[in-house]
Amino acid sequence: MKIQLKTSSLLAIAADCIVVATWGNQQLSANAQTLNNHLKGALTAFLKKTTQLENTCDSAFFTLREKELNASQLLLVNLGNKKEFTLEIFKKAIDKVAATLETIRCKSVCFAFDDVSPNDSTTGQCIRATAIALQQATYRFETYKSKPKTSALSQVIFFADKSQKNLDDATKQAEAIIAGMDLTMDLANCPPNVCHPGYLAKQADQLAKKYASLTVKTLNEAALKKLGAGALLSVGNGSPHKSKMILIEYRGAAKTQQPHILVGKGITFDTGGNNLKNFDGMLGMKYDMCGAATVFGVIKTVVELKLKINVVGIIATAENMPGGEATRPEDIVTSLSGQTIEILNTDAEGRLVLCDALTYAERYNPKSVIDIATLTGAIITCLGDINSGLFSNNDKLAEQIQQAATTTQDGVWRLPISSAYDAMINSNFADIKNIGGAAAGSITAACFLARFTKKYPWAHLDVAGTASVKAGMNRKATGRPVPLLVEYLLQQR
Ligand code: BES
Ligand code: MN
Ligand code: ZN
User: Fold this and answer.
1) How far is CA 14 from CA 51, 168, 284, in A?
2) What is the pLDDT at residue 145?
3) Using H for helix, E for strand and C for coil, what is the string for 331-392?
4) What is the pLDDT of residue 339?
5) Proportion of the chain above pLDDT 90, given as a percent
6) What residues pair up with 116 in beta bridges, in sequence order?
7) 277 catalytic, yes or no?
8) Which sign does the torsion angle of CA 356, 357, 358, 364 carry?
9) What ligand is nearest to the CA atom of residue 287?
10) What is the mean pLDDT of the chain?
11) Which of 163, 329, 355, 411 has fewest C-beta within 10 Å?
């Protein structure tokens, strides 16, 4: 999908479809008025008689006569009451528009929305939100279909009255973000017999081959054993695929600048291990590497945008399988930090791979560390597929993430990690146990991670509900929280 900003006359723009806004009280936006003048008042007349634009977020095609405009179709969108216009409403409207464009198999589209900035946002954010809506509507994972179908949409134009540096930047960011989301979703949707820890390592190598600003190093089982990463290693014991820690380093600033670190949970399939999941529980567990996939996508975006910061991605990857050599409930392992862990449930494996990656992160003297993990089913019970769970040991970092979530509409909700919860993971036989109990499952999981992140500002995103969502019997990847994390990093420049 090619995205451009155009500042030439609106009437001159050639596209399959041009999209302009109207307001709830049958008012035309400024751009719609420009077209209306050209069409000799036909849009005003149309607005008066149509019933298709009654509700906020409704859209309707205005039938153009031949050669009336350079564009072949004209789509009007009702953005509601101007005084109540928010980014949330814009997002809802644009999601519907994107779906409509996809059903008419539109090849090129122009959005003329520079005249309708939401009261709580900017035109730049609208550009990014529109690009994401289009990515979501047109994305297909057809690699394994014998007759793959693709979307027709290949060209997107954002019209702006005059050239503005920030809109130029927003357009470039929009393009880079959706390229990142594409990568995240492709990796996430990939079947688990193909996407195993070695595959992820290979993907990282390929990324480094493509971009000179990236360096990739992968720690294999021998290296991890030598280091003492006993927690990470314990998870892959039942699998023929070897566990790995993949380090992706992006240098966009001086070596002396502390990096921002993203740690991704990369369980390429989670059977639960000896605490085997049932049918319903296991289906969808190829998505247990969505945290890792998010790290890939964000780094791709950062590289494309050449951000002047340093970023390190750490991917802790393993396959959680039962088998003769698989970890047993009641096994005790020693983590990279030296803390011993009593594994009471082999299905609480995410925290085991993450804790060693989080300890490893100390070596980089990080400015901030954010881990992204499909960590608990409990977070779905708690927040559904609307917000990701946010946990942090640093209020300033948490607020920055909350702000980025609001700006991008890639929501988070903060939950506590106080000492009373932390006490629930004390073990009788080791320093920590890997489950708390039936109550507060997402919080005790976060408390577990918090014991390994005392040396730097840290946040944890539990994305079990948001990184993939139910689609009939299957799930499908959403590309979240790539928009949120890119926005967070954009604010760190
Ligand atoms: N990968 C799962 C969490 C999950 C569940 C992600 C559903 C997406 C959808 C995680 O490894 C897990 O199995 N967690 C257990 C923890 C429990 C054993 C303490 C869970 O949520 O049941
Ligand atoms: Mn599990
Ligand atoms: Zn898992």
Assistant:
1) 28, 20, 43
2) 97
3) EEEECCCCCEEEECCCCCCHHHHHHHHHHHHHHHCCCEEEEEECCCCHHHHHHCCCCEEEEE
4) 99
5) 98
6) none
7) yes
8) positive
9) 1
10) 97
11) 163
Return d(Cα 217, Cα 365) in angstroms, integer.
18
> Token pair for residue 259?
């990096």
Element (H, E) at 80: none
Global pTM value: 0.98
Q: Specify the residue for token string 């900003």.
A: 5
Residue 469: pLDDT band by 50, 70, 90 thresholds?
very high
Q: Hey, what are 170's tokens?
A: 């927003």
CA separation (Å) from 262 to 36, 146, 166? Answer: 49, 36, 27
Predicted confidence (pLDDT) per residue in 152-173, tens digit: 999 999 999 887 889 999 999 9
Q: What share of the chain is helix, strand, coil (3-state, %, to 5)?
A: 40, 20, 40
Contact 184, 482 (CB under 8 A): yes
Note whether 348 and 436 are within 8 A (CB): no
CA dist 197 and 236 (Å) reads 10
CA distance 478 to 469: 7
CA of 273 to the centre of ligand 2 (A): 8
Amino acid 100: pLDDT: 98
Determine whether 105 is an active site residue. no
385: DSSP letter:
T
Q: Say yes or no to pLDDT of 396 above 80.
A: yes
Q: To which H or E segment does residue 37 belong? A: helix 30-38
Task: Pick the atom of ligand 1 nearest to 288's CA.
Answer: 1
**CA-to-CA distance for 174 and 172, rounded, in angstroms?**
5
**Among 347, 424, 434, which residue has the most ligand 1 atoms within 8 Å of its CB, making it the best to mutate?**
347
Determine the 3-state secondary structure of 388 from DSSP: strand
Nearest ligand 1 atom, CA 270 = 1
Question: Encoding tokens for residue 91?
Answer: 């997002």
User: What's at 116, amino acid-wise?
Assistant: V
Q: Please return the burial class of 356, using the count of CB atoms within 10 Å of its CB with bins 0-12, 13-18 and 19+.
A: buried
